[in-house]
Amino acid sequence: MTHALVRVYGKVRGHLDAYAVADHLVPEMIGEPRWIPELEAEALPLQRVFLAEKWIVARLHYGHVDPREAGAGNIVNCGAAMYMAPVGLVNAAHPHAAYAEAIDVAGAHQSSYGREAAGVFAAGIAAACAPGATPASVVEACLSLAKDGTRSAIEAVCETATRHQDFEAAIAPLREAVAPFDTVGPDYRAPSLGARRPSRLHAIEELPVALGMLLVAGGDYRRAVLGSVNYGRDCDSIATMSGALAGALHGERAVPADWAATVAEASRLDLRAPARTLAEVAREVFARDTARRRAHEAAFATLAGTP
């Protein structure tokens, strides 16, 4: 889904919204066969994704639901947040803009704290791109934008994380810190009756823990990813987020070269091509945003009668 969203940015060459999901991401899911490593075959992305992502196609392609409202009714989970890193990169160093864009995009997929997590994660990526950014400044940016249970969960988990530097020792305390906000319950394979329902009091587990692991690892990519993987539960999602944040902090040099080579070969992916696309789009978007902002400044100065 992340690579599909990058391809959408490559087509649109501008900011995205919920309508871009309907107009471009859905066709990517149902009309563009890709190599699926888990299936060891070419298949449509739709055949690989989880039911919560199939929801996007059902609602938008078949149901013709307003894209801005299509996420309502879906199970509330980390699905939308998982692929929002590109939004943060296109809005690099501008967390507020990344948050707003991701909230709009994610409306086609998620609601409640699932949609909120998408916005906060994109903001975290954008904050991590700022020169001089640190794990602490990333968390601070996330907390400045997060709402309701998402904010409370991040605050609780990250406060706990500051007391640890070893990821193995941090696993149980981080789980204990996020548990009051998690709706799935202690047995991940047997979710509670109230699991994944909209709520202003709760949060997805994955984003707060990813931010916590980023702090525990001191921003180190390898340690953040290994800590996330060993956390268990929805560990691939947690590792995706913590790895993306560490990568945004330090760039390509943060990623172990042997890991990248193994993944690229096994998945038959060019891992650098999406990065080049996003860098190009980010520059184009920034140039247009700057021109619009200056035009607005000039118009407002005239309107207000100020030089």
Please outline what is shown here.
This protein has helices at 2-12, 18-31, 45-48, 51-62, 85-90, 95-106, 112-128, 135-145, 148-161, 167-178, 206-216, 221-231, 235-250, 257-267, 272-304; strands at residues 34-36, 41-43. It has 307 residues and is mostly helical.
Please give a structural write-up.
It is a single chain. The protein is mainly α and 307 residues long. The protein has one domain: ADP-ribosylglycohydrolase fold (Orthogonal Bundle). Helices cover 64% and strands 2% of the residues. The chain has helices at 2-12, 18-31, 45-48, 51-62, 85-90, 95-106, 112-128, 135-145, 148-161, 167-178, 206-216, 221-231, 235-250, 257-267, 272-304, and strands at 34-36, 41-43. The chain has a two-stranded antiparallel ribbon with strand order 1-2. Helix 1 (2-12) crosses helix 2 (18-31), helix 6 runs antiparallel to helix 7 (112-128) and helix 9 (148-161) runs antiparallel to helix 10 (167-178). The longest helix has 33 residues, at 272-304. The radius of gyration is 19 Å and the shape is globular.
